[in-house]
Amino acid sequence: MALVPFGPNCIRARDxxxxxxxxxxxxxxxxxxxxxxxxxAQPAPAQVAPAKAPPSAELGGYRLPLLREGSVITRVxxxxxxxxxxxxxxxxxxxxxxxxxxxxxxxxxxxxLEDMLRTVRLSPSPVEFELTGRVFIYRGRxxxxxxxxxxxxxxxxxAGSPTQPSTKAQPTPSGDAKFVPPVVTSQPKVDSxxxxxxxxxxxxxxxxxDAAVDAIEKRLEERVGRIPARPAPAAKPAPIDAQPSTPxxxxxxxxxxxxxRLLRDPQAGSWRFVPEQVTGSGDPSLxxxxxxxxxxxxxxxxxxxxxPSILLSGSAYAFEGKSYLLPTSFRRAREGRGIGR
Length: 341
Description:
By secondary structure, the protein is of the alpha+beta class. The chain contains 6 helices and 11 strands. The chain has helices at 8-25, 27-31, 111-122, 192-197, 203-224, 292-303, and strands at 72-82, 89-93, 105-107, 127-137, 142-148, 151-153, 254-264, 271-275, 286-288, 309-319, 322-332. The chain is flat and about 155 Å long.
């Protein structure tokens, strides 16, 4: 075994030994060629698309689940708006539900809705309503028959920015505080002599002008004569063919197994119940209000070619001179020779 003496040669031999070890470890790298020394480009990280914000209620995005038919909403605070497309009146509660969406109810025509519209049209300030009513379903949409809707007028609020109602208790007046005594205004007595002394200075000139005008009018009447007054135009007689409009069925009228036919209104596209005219002076036709039972009536009407004869029960409602019927039950009427029902 040869010994390497100490000195520069010893240090150089040690460096060569270390270099040989490094070359042995990186041998496969040099075997791949000079391209292996070129650093490989790292793949770009996949770009993650930003999460889209949930669509708002005005854009018609997510829909809230429907309320069950027959349920009741009680003292729900909201406002009144009109659907620009279908011209329906909508009630929108102020309290938002899941997702920040506001629920919308289509209001069914009835006297309560008529009072609500009258209040909105007459009030110069935004009006809120505390609605109580029954919920119905028709073609995947919630309808409400308002039973009570007291208005709440906010004189200090702008349109679209409702304020929360005050919950502070108000004291109830009792005793004499209930009555407000009438205000008696006493006029001071005027002395006739003092009134004569305070006569305006130009009163004599006005009196002279009035006398001159009266004299000129009198002379004109003597020359021309008094002009006869123009007679009032006679009222036009009513045409003979005019027939009085059919009065609407009173609100609250009950129909119990009333026989009639179900017809489709070609102009409005709604379904109407036409009661059977036995004596010639029966009730007028009524438009059927949207509900689940109306969907069943539509299926029954589409099963046959002719308008089906049914026995219908329900309650009538009047709205702006028209009659509406909220059905509660129905069944097909038996038809045939010698069969009345």
